[in-house]
């Protein structure tokens, strides 16, 4: 780039946007990058307080910040993301549809270790809505050595999955089995069902008819099998998840031959959470907090399963960092620290 006097700029090509600010009237680009300066532009530029401007000098090996930011954005973009137009050297990536953000934390770190490269994102596994801002890219200098951007593009290609992508939640048929002799015999009213049904439907899935079982291993297993017969692709078993002698839900699930991923999670509320797979069908044992706490471990795990992800014990263990809900008087999840 080259710095020249405004009076000598006729015919030169602007290298960046020129912002005009008139309080209460306008604040935005008066001249865009690539604009060829005309004679009539000179008094306008002087009126904007510009004595000198930077123009394109076509130095080999250097690229403009807008091009660099766009190439960075394209290198990290996976499915489910749109790119905004470059603005003052920055490109925003937004969600193309509702879903869950999958971000490679290692990939983000690797790119940001490159000098003069900036990639800022929201937290991994965060639920997003269409149009939500997901990330922004830019470079620090107005002009940057293209070798830096080529290295960023190379790094992005070394990861098996895109550094950033939004995965839609699939539509599952979800079976609900509520355990507990007190509910089964009608001594108390079930409160799990309405909560679970509302969450399932908000995620775009279908809640099958809820079934009930007393605190009996064989009855719980029979209820789970009935849900499978009715086409359940995910099963939620509520109640009976503590260590009391009468709480036999974990035993019932394990003794069905299900692959136990975890019984217990480093999340509060939700420590007594169970995840298992019976062949390909995920089964979640839900503790009592799901019934009365607005956001729990269930809200962190279920959406990931609904994207089609097969979770491991390590995935659950990692929830400990950020797994403490502060139980604010007004819940703002997911725009808070929980699950981050």
UniProtKB/TrEMBL annotation:
Pfam families: MoCF_biosynth. Signal peptide: none annotated. CDD domains: MoeA_like. The keyword Cytoplasm does not apply. Transmembrane segments: none annotated. InterPro entries: MoaB/Mog-like_dom_sf, MoaB/Mog_dom, MoeA-like. Keywords: Magnesium, Metal-binding, Molybdenum, Molybdenum cofactor biosynthesis, Transferase. Its EC number is 2.10.1.1. Its cofactor is Mg(2+). Residues 175-307 form the MoaB/Mog domain. Pathway: Cofactor biosynthesis; molybdopterin biosynthesis. One of its GO terms (biological process) is Mo-molybdopterin cofactor biosynthetic process. GO terms for molecular function: metal ion binding; molybdopterin molybdotransferase activity. One of its GO terms (cellular component) is cytosol. The keyword Metal-binding applies. It catalyses: adenylyl-molybdopterin + molybdate = Mo-molybdopterin + AMP + H(+). Coiled coil: none annotated. Catalyzes the insertion of molybdate into adenylated molybdopterin with the concomitant release of AMP. Belongs to the MoeA family. PANTHER family: MOLYBDOPTERIN BIOSYNTHESIS PROTEIN (PTHR10192), MOLYBDOPTERIN MOLYBDENUMTRANSFERASE (PTHR10192:SF28). This is Molybdopterin molybdenumtransferase. It comes from Desulfosporosinus acididurans.
């Amino acid at each position: 780039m080259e710095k020249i006097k405004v009076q000598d700029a006729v015919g030169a090509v602007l290298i960046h946007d020129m912002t005009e600010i008139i309080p209460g009237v306008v604040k935005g680009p008066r001249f865009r990058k690539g604009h060829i300066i005309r004679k009539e532009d000179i008094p306008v530029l002087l009126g904007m307080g510009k004595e000198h401007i930077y123009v394109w000098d076509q130095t080999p090996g250097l690229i403009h910040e807008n091009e660099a930011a766009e190439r960075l954005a394209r290198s990290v973009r996976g499915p489910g993301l749109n790119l905004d137009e470059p603005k003052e050297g920055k490109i925003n990536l937004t969600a193309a549809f509702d879903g869950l953000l999958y971000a490679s934390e290692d990939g983000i770190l690797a790119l940001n270790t490159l000098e003069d490269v900036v990639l800022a994102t929201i937290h991994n596994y965060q639920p997003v809505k269409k149009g939500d801002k997901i990330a922004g890219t830019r470079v620090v200098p107005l002009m940057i050595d293209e070798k830096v951007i080529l290295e960023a593009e190379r790094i992005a290609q070394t990861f098996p999955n895109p550094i950033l992508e939004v995965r839609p939640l699939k539509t599952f048929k979800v079976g609900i089995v509520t355990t507990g002799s007190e509910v089964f015999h009608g001594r108390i009213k079930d409160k799990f069902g309405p909560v679970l049904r509302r969450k399932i439907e908000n995620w775009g899935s279908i809640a099958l008819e809820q079934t009930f079982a007393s605190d009996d291993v064989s009855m719980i297993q029979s209820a789970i099998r009935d849900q499978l017969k009715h086409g359940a692709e995910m099963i939620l078993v509520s109640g009976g998840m503590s260590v009391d002698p009468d709480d036999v839900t974990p035993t019932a699930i394990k003794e069905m031959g299900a692959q136990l991923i975890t019984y217990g999670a480093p999340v509060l509320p939700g420590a007594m959470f169970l995840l298992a797979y019976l062949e390909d069908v995920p089964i979640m044992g839900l503790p009592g907090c799901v019934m009365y706490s607005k956001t729990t471990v269930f809200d962190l795990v279920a959406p990931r399963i609904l994207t089609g992800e097969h979770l491991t014990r390590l995935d659950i263990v990692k929830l400990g960092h950020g797994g403490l809900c502060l139980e604010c008087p007004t819940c703002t999840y997911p725009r808070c620290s929980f699950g981050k």
